[in-house]
Design brief:
By secondary structure, the protein is of the alpha+beta class. The chain has helices at residues 3-37, 44-65, 83-96, 134-139, 142-155, 162-187, 202-232, 234-245, 247-264, 273-281, 288-296, 307-313, 328-332, 338-345; strands spanning 75-77, 102-106, 112-119, 125-133. The protein has 14 helices and four strands. Helix 5 (142-155) packs across helix 8. It is globular, with a radius of gyration of 24 Å.
Length: 346
């Protein structure tokens, strides 16, 4: 895809996801106002009801159109708390012209993400957060973690162009709106089910928008994979993706199950749970091939998205990766007390 095609595609997505919904809200609101104001003696009461219904949906849609979202939960790191990790992330940002972001260390996250959190909805902006899970830092070596962090930086890089970043921002916005509205719909079933009528237009719109962005995001994932594979080598990125794909079931099977057995047997847990997990993850897992097959089929919830498609584009074969000799956490958090602090939160 050349430069012009990319800009046309991004502009079309921006118009579809930002301008068209806003114009739709204006149209519904004007129609509702006309039905309320205009004298229609032969059907005054039904027209009034329909008008009020449309106006309520318009107000709810406007509120959603300018909705902001909170950042991810976790231990927010202040500057200087993890200097080696901060230097690592700053090097990735400088190399790829990425955005500046707050650093959040999450005790129970399964991924490393540079998240763009939408502010003020359709025509707002993103606030960026590095959301770094402890588990990926224990299961990946420094080189693999570097490939993952640079992947996230490239995805939100200024090299992508303003329209491309706006399309990604809107994709994140509609995905969050979709989850928010579906959660509200579940909460308001039963006696409060009538409240779902207030979002009778926005719910299907959000659901439809999420589907429309899927081909765009798939292409962007593949483009970013190819950039990182060119810089770090495809084997490095493939090892990282496959390791992350089996991380959640591996920790549950090898780590959490062992802790439950200790508790049931009246034994105490390891003094440092994260150090124990690092030892567990350093061993080749039994059943890793089966876990990976499930992830490739999209059946592992915490696995990287579109894993099979991305490996196919890199012409790489999925394989259960050899565990790192030294986890990245020992390099990036060395000399700090962060693991112990996060352990307390966990």
């Amino acid at each position: 895809m050349n430069w012009i095609e990319d800009r046309i595609r991004s502009a079309a997505l921006f118009g579809m996801a930002a301008i068209a919904p806003f114009l739709g809200l204006v149209f519904i609101g004007l129609l509702g106002a006309l039905l309320v104001i205009l004298p229609l003696p032969w059907c005054r009461f039904p027209a009034l009801l329909v008008g009020i219904f449309l106006l309520i949906n318009t107000l709810e849609g406007i509120r959603t159109a300018f909705m902001s979202f909170s950042g991810p939960p976790g231990r927010v790191l202040e500057p200087g708390e993890a200097p080696v990790l901060e230097t690592h992330l700053e090097a990735a940002r400088a190399a790829w012209q990425g955005p500046r972001a707050r650093l959040i260390l999450a005790p129970d996250a399964w991924s490393v993400e540079l998240t763009g959190v939408p502010r003020w909805g359709l025509f707002g902006w993103n606030r960026y957060h590095w959301y770094i899970g402890i588990y990926p830092m224990l299961c990946l070596g420094l080189r693999e973690l570097q490939a993952v962090t640079e992947w996230e930086t490239v995805f939100w890089s200024d090299y992508q162009g303003w329209l491309n970043l706006q399309a990604k921002r809107l994709a994140a916005y509609w995905y969050r709106v979709h989850l928010h509205l579906e959660t509200r719909a579940r909460d308001h079933r039963g006696t409060g089910g009538w409240r779902n009528l207030f979002r009778i237009f926005t719910r299907p719109c959000a659901r439809w928008m999420v589907r429309q962005f899927q081909p765009f995001l798939a292409r962007e994932f593949v483009r970013t994979d190819m950039a990182i594979a060119h810089r770090h080598g495809a084997p490095t990125l493939v090892r990282a993706l496959c390791r992350l794909a089996i991380l959640h079931p591996l920790v549950q099977r090898r780590g959490f199950a062992a802790w439950d057995s200790r508790i049931q047997g009246g034994q105490s847990l390891p003094e440092d749970l994260y150090a124990h997990l690092a030892e567990v993850l350093a061993r080749y897992p039994e059943g890793a091939d089966g876990m990976l097959d499930l992830a490739l089929d999209g059946l592992q919830r915490e696995a990287p998205p579109l894993l099979r498609l991305r490996l196919d584009y890199m012409e790489a074969k999925a394989q259960a990766p050899v565990p790192p000799a030294t986890p990245a956490s020992r390099h990036l958090l060395e000399g700090t007390d962060l693991l112990r602090q996060v352990h307390g939160l966990w």
